[in-house]
Write a structure and sequence with these properties.
With 379 residues, this protein is α/β, with parallel strands linked by helices. Helix content is 39%, strand content 15%.
Length: 379
């Protein structure tokens, strides 16, 4: 019989509909309902806001009401002093909660508590988990750099590594990213799970190429549109549909400049599952990722994936030419060529889709929950 652990997760908020919030909710619900773990999530923000994803009645939520989000609107000088003040309050309140709960395991999602978590002597094992890759941690939207930014980033990373060394375990998403932390000997890789199980599989007959993700520099839609300009000349009957949140205006401008005819830049939709089923190719043009949730979702619907081999984790999931196609990162021409190859070769497309579906089963929630249970027991 599995031991019934008492687990505390520390994260800023659950009201935003992001990947971290979704994965944490999935894991917390599963552990509480299937393993009968005593799960508490401690939050610093969002006291009066509903959670973005359903939370099990068995999962406890504790709101410390620190309101770090107040810093977003402050001047730099005020922000420094206010941050230090709020950090002291956070440390005091979190320590009080952990001493009250006395968890077996405390899991930080590597936000502000990582600076002091291991100093709290509540008797719990301390775990940290990172949902992006090291090379792009805290660098989400732009490749612009400056001397000051480089110096600050180095100082901040050195400080982070010192804190990570004190953890009992540090969990990253991929084996590729695990190798990016040579200073640490406490790192293991556990990928994120697919957020749903489906028996539905695309027939791969619709002349539709799909991309899913935020309209942001990270997702590389500027490169995707340039690739599509090449594709639609060779495959004029096919369409590209992109779905995501964010500002579409810069990409609409690029599409107009490229005179794209069969390209549709859409907002986010609630029926994204239907979009997977109505597509025959899934494309990822990201400059970097943690472990793409949309990649795993697309594969679970049997879609062949054509993707840049960007950092980090695509090589962990895709064997190029077997269950998807990887091309060198940022190589627009090769991305276009491989999309065209998959479009024009139905047999290849179906073989990739079948193997993609098989590979996706390794990322089911029940499979990866067992890896977490094994980690807890090892500690």
């Amino acid at each position: 019989m599995n031991k019934k652990y008492k687990i505390v997760y520390c994260t800023p908020a659950l009201y935003m509909s992001g990947g971290v919030e979704r994965v944490l909710t999935l894991k917390a619900n599963y552990f509480a309902e299937h393993y009968d773990y005593d799960v508490t999530i401690i939050l610093t923000e969002g006291k009066d806001k509903p959670c973005a994803y359903p939370i099990s009645d068995k999962v406890k939520l504790v709101y410390l009401d620190i309101n770090f989000e107040e810093l977003w609107t402050c001047s730099f000088v005020k922000k420094v002093f206010l941050y230090l003040k709020k950090q002291r309050v956070y440390k005091r309140k979190l320590k009080a909660e952990l001493m009250r709960i006395r968890p077996d395991i405390t899991d930080s999602l590597l936000r502000r508590e990582i600076n002091f978590l291991t100093k709290i002597k509540d008797g719990s094992v301390k775990i940290g988990e990172l949902h992006v890759n090291r090379l792009n941690y805290r660098n989400f939207e732009t490749n612009e750099t400056s001397f000051i930014k480089v110096l600050f980033s180095r100082f901040w990373m050195n400080s982070l590594v010192r804190h990570l060394k004190r953890l009992d375990r540090f969990v990253v998403l991929t084996e590729e990213d695990k190798n990016n932390w040579p200073e640490l000997n406490n790192v293991i890789a556990i990928p994120n799970p697919i957020s749903f199980n489906t028996d539905s599989v695309s027939r791969l007959e619709k002349k539709n190429v799909l991309a899913v993700g935020r309209y942001a520099y990270q997702k590389g839609y500027d490169m995707l549109l340039k690739a599509w300009a090449i594709v639609e000349k060779k495959c004029p009957e096919w369409e590209l549909n992109v779905y995501g949140q964010g500002d579409r205006e810069p990409y609409d401008k690029i599409a107009k400049e490229l005179q794209l005819k069969n390209c549709h830049l859409n907002g986010s939709v609630s029926n994204i599952n239907e979009k997977y089923l109505d597509s025959s190719v899934f494309v990822i043009s990201s400059r970097f990722e943690g472990l793409s949730m949309s990649l795993l979702e697309a594969m679970s619907f049997g879609l062949p994936v054509v993707s840049f081999a960007c950092p980090c984790g695509f090589r962990d999931v895709i064997t190029s030419g077997v269950n998807g196609v990887l091309v060198p990162k940022n190589n627009v021409e090769m991305l276009a060529d491989q999309i065209i190859e998959v479009i024009q070769n139905p047999k290849f497309r179906n073989e990739l889709g079948k193997k993609a579906r098989e590979r996706s089963q390794d990322f089911r929630l029940d499979v990866l929950a067992e890896k977490w249970r094994e980690l807890f027991e090892s500690l």
